[in-house]
Amino acid sequence: MTGFVSTVESFQQGARTLPGRYYTSPEVFAREQAWLLDKRWFCVGRADQLAEPGSYFLQPMGPESIIVLRDKKGVLRAFYNVCRHRGTRMCEEPHGKFGETIQCPYHAWTFSTDGRLIGAPHMAEAEGFDKADYPLKSVAVHEWEGFLFLNLAVEPEPFTEAFAPLIGRLDRFNLASLKLGRRIEYTVHSNWKLVFQNYSECLHCPVIHPELSTLMPYTSGANDLVEGTVLGGYMRISEPHRSVTMTGRSCGLQLGELTEEDRKRAYYYTVFPNLALSIHPDYAVCYTLWPEAVGRTKVICEWLFHPESFGRKDFNPEDAVAFWDLTNKQDWHITELSFAGISSRSYEPGPYSPRESVPAAWDRAFLEAIDGMK
């Protein structure tokens, strides 16, 4: 991906890249993943994946499997995919629709879609057994601008506190109403932090992204969020181009009632620990990162458009999809080369430039998030 032009004022002189062990050590990887899963909100997709009551999808989160569903009353819920009888995983299909209940395939313990145990064969014979004592174990779920977030913590930090800089900031783009036009899943043979750091700066753009640099010169913008767990800013779309597409033309309807300034900008934000957002005048792209190993990251990329764009003769989503598929692959390749180099015994932390202040800030947010990790 691409990123931002950094303001010199936000740069901390002397900032250096992280030591190699943070990228290459399996032990560090295992600890950081467990630590983050214990504490942080993770984006797991879009609410319109669960359009109808009873619809669900399974979300892997480290070693866990989470059932994310819309119950029979239309309420969004999430549960561990673990039967309260003998611990069996109940669902195998990655997505689908429940009938009236969720039933374990082992001994037919049966749960309502709101998690209550409503059927437990032969347990009436067990002294003191009460179905009310054995609901499915729930996971915190929150919807923001059409995106779904999960938190595995027993007492999660309130979402509005964790992501305070985002609340209300992007309302004008009507993200909640956008509809999915395309989804591509990538496997990147690199550490997940390198993918985020690459997204967070555009100093590399003239070398790696000639197509992007034609549409948005890397010195054309600034950051408006420069510290914390939400980072990023904007870049300017150069005249006569109207969007960030292969043709430079708009590919769909404008996302909302945008100012003239917004119609000439593209906004890019990282939302720690696993979401990146690219917002253009006529479409948005969201990236969710799922670390699978110290040197392997799954990236799910989704292109979102104004719902009224679909069906129009002038709607050309492939113009945006092809552009970012090309740009993504350029980024994935360079992050793989970066991971390969950092894996060398000769690697040692190097200095960030003032135009890399957001990756440096991302490092600080990461280190703060795992502070005290044992």
Structural notes for this entry:
The chain is an alpha+beta fold. It has two domains: 227 residues, Alpha-Beta Complex (Naphthalene 1,2-dioxygenase Alpha Subunit, Chain A, domain 1); 115 residues, Rieske Iron-sulfur Protein (3-layer Sandwich). Helices cover 21% and strands 26% of the residues. The protein is built from eight helices and 17 strands. The strands form four sheets. The protein has a seven-stranded antiparallel beta sheet with strand order 11-17-16-15-14-13-12. A hairpin with a 5-residue loop joins strand 3 and strand 4. Helix 4 crosses helix 7. The longest helix is centred in the last third of the chain and has 26 residues. The radius of gyration is 22 Å and the shape is globular. The two termini are 32 Å apart. The N terminus is likely disordered.
